[in-house]
Design brief:
61% strand, 1 helix, mainly beta, 220 residues, 8-stranded antiparallel β-barrel
Length: 220
């Protein structure tokens, strides 16, 4: 199911590319993902406060139907999300903790697709803009740096959220260099546990901030 959804999104993206009469530019995009997770416990007896982790983003960008102030953009890329947490080291001799701390890094990888609306301030070479739109993330894997890393069971193959942010295009000849910053909150849970005997209800959501640099080629 997961692979089928990823293949379907790739086919949609390729079909959009084929509509050259609507196309303005295509490009590659890479940058940094600064991600965290919101762990919401129903009980107040335990509270996990995750910290932000730094990851990687690599993708393709496409822009079409470009008017003076408005156009549509679509990005398809690989992004690393997740969170970090500090835990105290315990040993057999010191089961309650030694006082030393270590950082556990939990990484969740996704293929992300986001079609967004772009609103620009026109300029000869430099154009600042705002953008916003829906986002779909396809889960592809988990990794951690420690045996006590928190891997959630039954992570859904697809989660939904939004993307919004600001950018700056610099155009020269047939090329555009773009610097962009965006926030990616999720609407759906990465994990959800109902309250049961001995367990409190718990929900987990992703969020991330991306800073990226793009190199684009003008098609018309």
């Amino acid at each position: 199911m997961q692979k089928r959804l990823i293949i379907a999104s790739l086919l949609v993206f390729t079909t959009i590319y084929s509509k050259a009469q609507f196309s303005n530019n295509v490009g590659i995009k890479s940058g940094v993902s600064i991600a965290n997770q919101d762990w919401d416990y129903e009980s107040s007896n335990f509270d996990l406060e995750p910290e932000f982790r730094t990851g990687f983003y690599l993708g393709m960008s496409y822009e079409m139907l470009k008017g003076k102030y408005f156009s549509l953009m679509a990005d398809l890329g690989y992004v690393q999300k997740g969170m970090q947490t500090e835990v105290e080291i315990a040993t057999t001799a010191n089961p309650d903790g030694t006082g030393e701390m270590k950082t556990i890094d939990n990484r969740y990888d996704f293929i992300s697709f986001q079609p967004v609306a772009k609103f620009r301030l026109p300029g000869k070479h430099i154009e600042p803009y705002l953008f916003a739109g829906p986002r779909t993330d396809f889960y592809v894997g988990f990794s951690t740096n420690d045996e006590f890393g928190i891997e959630l069971d039954d992570v859904p193959p697809v989660t939904f959220g939004a993307s919004y942010g600001v950018g700056l295009d610099y155009a020269f000849s047939k090329f555009i260099i773009t610097l962009e910053g965006q926030h990616q909150p999720d609407f759906t849970y990465l994990w959800e546990q109902s309250a049961s005997f001995g367990q409190s209800a718990l929900t987990v959501k992703n969020q991330a901030f991306l800073v990226t640099l793009s190199f684009k080629y003008l098609l018309n």
